[in-house]
Amino acid sequence: MTPPPVPFFDRARGDLAMQDELAAVFQSVIRSGQYILGPEVEAFESACAAYLGVRHAIGVSSGTDALLVALMALGIGAGDEVVCPAYTFFATAGAVHRTGARPVFADVLPGSFNVDPASVARVLTERTRAVIAVHLFGDCAPMDELLAVARGRGLPVIEDAAQAFGAERAGALGLMGCFSFFPTKNLGGFGDGGLVTTDRDDLAARVRSLRAQGAPRKHHHALVGGNFRLDALQAALLRRKLPRLGALLERRRGHAARYAALLGGAGLPVALPGAGSAGHTFNQYVIRLEDGSRRDPLRSFLAERGIGAEVYYPAPLHLQPCFAPIGPPAGSLPVAEAAARETLALPIFPELTDEEIDRVAAAFRSFFA
């Protein structure tokens, strides 16, 4: 008998385990008649601020909009430059471009794939207004070094913590933090949603105004903002999931440890992710092949056996067609370019079973045998 497939990600397993509670929350929001902002959003923001250890947590419409509104709150726009890693999800640089500023790409570190502080220092110019540090795959970027580079030039550091909700002090290390509640994230919503964090009262007030068309009170527009508000239903559902997050992250870490035990001593021509910085959340479990030409055949081999795997990310940002005209050219950021050729993400989500991990590891070893 053919065993059932091992999905790359299965959100339904966790949701079904608490469906009665989630259904009750849904009914409660319907009875309230409050669908945009309001008490549920305020309660969720307070819970997130306490969990993350920050003064302010402001719910917004998505992780992308969290980045955009954070940049807007800092007044970044046309003629400015913002440094970000070349190897990350598109939204990091896309949000910079939408402000009218120019994303400037730095290379990444070969082990964690997080942005390289030395590369950041090399690309700073007199037009640089901020640095975005991405906590890639749930592992915090080297913030001490990045903050030292940025402070030497008086630059703010924005944390793109979309994949790192629950990593130790993520969102509380830079001037502002940005999170995503996309369904695949550690704290996944039921649609889009995001969060901006800061300890600065003035920036928090500015973000709250910007998310509601720049109006600190109705019909009085001090700024030109946008419609970046978090839905009450998303906030209500997420708030009920938040107390479970710690246990779910421990399961992710346990799965990563099991992969390491099954694959680490097998003499395979791959590099496995390390434990990373404190509180690595393993939003993705990304391995790196010594020979990038074997990445796609490996993925196909796993798919033939019903095992999901994904590529994060198939092209670095400086080589995406929309950013190619602003550079730098191919070959200039070699670590990011190699990572795009050589990495593959294996299944990892809290409800994954030990037996499923064993099957993934067995197929993985079989491919190299």
Could you characterize the architecture of this molecule?
Helix content is 39%, strand content 13%. Strand 4, helix 7 and strand 5 form a beta-alpha-beta unit. The protein folds into 2 domains: 12-243, Aspartate Aminotransferase, domain 2 (3-Layer(aba) Sandwich); 245-368, Alpha-Beta Complex (Aspartate Aminotransferase, domain 1), CATH 3.90.1150. The mean pLDDT is 96. The strands form 2 sheets. Strands 1-7-6-5-4-2-3 form a 7-stranded mixed beta sheet, sandwiched between helices. A 3-stranded antiparallel beta sheet has the order 8-9-10. With 369 residues, the protein is of the alpha/beta class. The longest helix is centred in the C-terminal third of the chain and has 19 residues, at 245-263. The radius of gyration is 21 Å and the shape is globular. The protein is built from 13 helices and 10 strands.
Write the layout of secondary structure elements.
Layout: H1 11-17, H2 19-32, H3 39-52, E1 56-60, H4 63-73, E2 81-85, H5 91-98, E3 102-106, H6 117-123, E4 128-134, H7 143-151, E5 157-160, E6 176-180, E7 194-198, H8 201-210, H9 232-241, H10 245-263, E8 270-271, E9 285-289, H11 295-304, H12 334-342, E10 343-346, H13 354-368
Parallel strand pairs: 2-3, 2-4, 4-5, 5-6
Antiparallel strand pairs: 1-7, 6-7, 8-9, 9-10
Query: Percent helix among the residues?
Result: 25-40%
CATH superfamily of the largest domain: Type I PLP-dependent aspartate aminotransferase-like (Major domain)
Q: Ends: how far apart?
A: 24 Å
Number of strands: 10
Net shape: globular
**Number of domain modules:** 2
- Major sheet: size, sense and barrel closure? 7 strands, mixed
Per CATH, the class of the largest domain reads Alpha Beta
Provide the succession of SSEs: HHHEHEHEHEHEEEHHHEEHHEH
Provide the low-confidence segments as ranges. none
